[in-house]
Amino acid sequence: MSIPDRGPELWGVNNAFIVTAFLAYFLRCFVRVKMVKAFGFDDCLMGIALLFYLFYTISSNVGVHYGTGRHHHDLSTENVARARHCWWFCYIFYSWAMIFAKLSIGFLLLRISIKRVHTWILYAAMLLSVVAGGTFFFVIVFQCQPVYYFWDKSNKGTCVPNDLIVGLAYTYSIFSIISDFTFAIIPGFLVWHLQLKRRAKVALIPLIAMGCIASAAVIARMPFIRHFNSPDFLWATTDIAIWSTIEQALAITAGSLATLRPLFFLAMNRLGLVTQPSSQRPSYGAKSGPLAMGAASKKQTSENLRPDHFKLSAVVETRVSHDAAQRPTDFPKSPNWFNNGPPAKESKKLSKKSMNDNESERSLKMKSSRGSSDEDTAGIMVSKSFYITDEERSLASRDSRPYQ
User: Helix 162-192 crosses helix 214-221 at what angle (to 10 degrees)?
Assistant: First the structure.
């Protein structure tokens, strides 16, 4: 007859979900560092949560090696003590992994929070997560005096009643569900005030709200919390260990997937499923690159003028005045232009004649230079952009003179 052993089941869940969490966080770092260049405080918090989750997985796998998932009567006293010692470490790493994961999700939502009421709700949810997780950590870690009496029953010691641990576990689960659902509902209000199309908002809300998926594992774990009272601790708490592993993995994975929108659109563009390149899509935290010289000049010119909220613009292209650009500075004077000249009447006639001669000679030079410049190049064009509102258009249509 084979010995009942659920250890391999727990070992498989641990390894599968730790790989998934690492992959999701790696993609998160790729998007934040390489694509949008906006690696922030929430990313650091999620990295710390992943580190604690890794320690949890190692402790849980070591516990499987010594007997987690098996009945006490099938194990030696030493292996029971070692497996329970691993459970004690799992308590520590689980508490801190969930605290940092919840804080990371909260700070992620604070990035797009605009209204003060939303900001205070997010801070309250994060504070609730810290208080609940911290209380669970201190009570669980110091439930026995001395501490090592939790796994080593050969020495004298005392522990708090198991009913208190069960009640604390239920209380922590309820607070965790409340904070998770807060993080799930708030993104709807945050995204709805962003300047995005309705379809983009509807698609973005579930992506950001994915961080609350961990509450599904909390709900699934609640029926098994009563098994903390079982004397066959290592066998009876296997389901608690499995769902605790899934809870941490979902919090880290889903919280990281909420930041992968730029990578998602890039993949869709490469597959030909979207026509607009991902580089033209506005992504949160991205640093805009330099524009082309013509586009930049137009954008700067339009920004210096009145704002064009409705994209009503008129562009007028004018030619550079060749009279001002090509007016000669050292134009030859008329030979009749002198200081000591004839009487006033004759001098007026001569000056008028010389002016006519100068004007004709100047026009000939300008025509020749204008013709040569038109042959060489298309001419220098200056683009002047100004914006006309509907009210100004109506006023301009009433007057006979053009809009100034």
Answer: 150
